[in-house]
From TrEMBL:
GO molecular function per UniProt: metal ion binding; metalloendopeptidase activity
Tagged with keyword Glycoprotein: no
Record protein name field: Uncharacterized protein
Gene Ontology cellular component list: cell envelope
Subcellular localization: Cell envelope
Amino acid sequence: MRWKCNVLARRFCLALLGMVLFCSPPPCGASGFQATLPVNATLVHPVAPPPSAVSVVEGQIRNGTLYEALTACDIPPAEILSLSRSFKPVFDFRCSRPQDFYQVSVDDQRLIQKFVYKTSPLDEYEAVKDDKGGYRVHKRHISLDRQVVAKVFTIETSLYQAVADSGETQQISGLVADIFAWDIDFYLYPRKGDRIAVVYERCYKDGAFVKYGNVLAARYVGRQKTFSAFLFNDGQFDGYYDETGQPLKKMFLRTPVKFGKMTSRYSIRRFHPVSKRYKAHTGIDYGAPTGTPIFATANGRVTFSGWKGGYGKLTIVKHPNGYQTYYGHCSRLLKKRGQLVEQGEVIARVGQTGVATGPHVHYEVRVNGKPMNPNKVKKSRGKPLKPALLAKFKETVDERLLLVDRLLEEKDSLVMLSQDH
């Protein structure tokens, strides 16, 4: 019996020893275990290095260059070169002007961490250093406060003078003249006493006026006739329409270049200066210096942009009702196939590519694939609004029509309608 008690006692001691070993700190070096510190050791936690101090320097370019301004801040030339290269896709510093503003944030090693460049209240660019030492550059989105106002101008001598007398800038008179350009010759038509009610936007930034926005509605009351214009989007483009939904703009501009001289007319039989034989000339040539902007003469979609035989570099735009316009001999093509273009938008530059004796644009109009004289379509107006859009248009127009009519009856010349933030 005494032997059995000794065996049980030994087993109990071994079990108790195992529990002590299991609960004790693991030996140093064992996987997943912590080493036991000496009694007099002090535990030190790792401390992150303090962030580099950042200083901000700002100023204007004035009569120098950005390079000179930044080197004066002890910024290494390599940093400035890297910044300039990163900026090129959005802004070329060679186009800097004296009033341009810059703000640069540098660390204690004079390395650029952030850079802001402003060329106007509406044009701000920002560069932030990335993990690879380069810069992420973008144009900042500028939020503007828009104030919608309505004003009546009474003509004594001219529209321009009426606008100036009211305290507005000539930009408003230009906007109104452009809207009614197809119907009113503002040098000849206006008479003393004619009145124009205009609903338009004023845009502000930080409380300061920066530009005019859209003209939302205008109504010209003359001695002989009244003209109206209302801004409306047809689902693709903004445009001006009269109160019945008819577009004010003609479908086509007169010419694809602003200052071009006609050098060759449309003709079914013309002596070709290069081939030295008579052949049809299916368009009109406008001579202009190389690089002159070429405008889309109507809204449409680019269906071809590339090289095409004697046309050289050619852009073809497709328009409603089976119309197409060709712009040939370009030096540069600025639009790609499939892009939408608006009337008056720059789509190419004048050149001398293909079969050409001098810099010009060959302008051609086709209807259902057949060439026609461009001068025959200059009086055509754009398509009226579709019935599905007409109801929505009427809702907008009826409200604005009541507004401009009420303004013309009242003596007050200026009314603030709303302000959006």
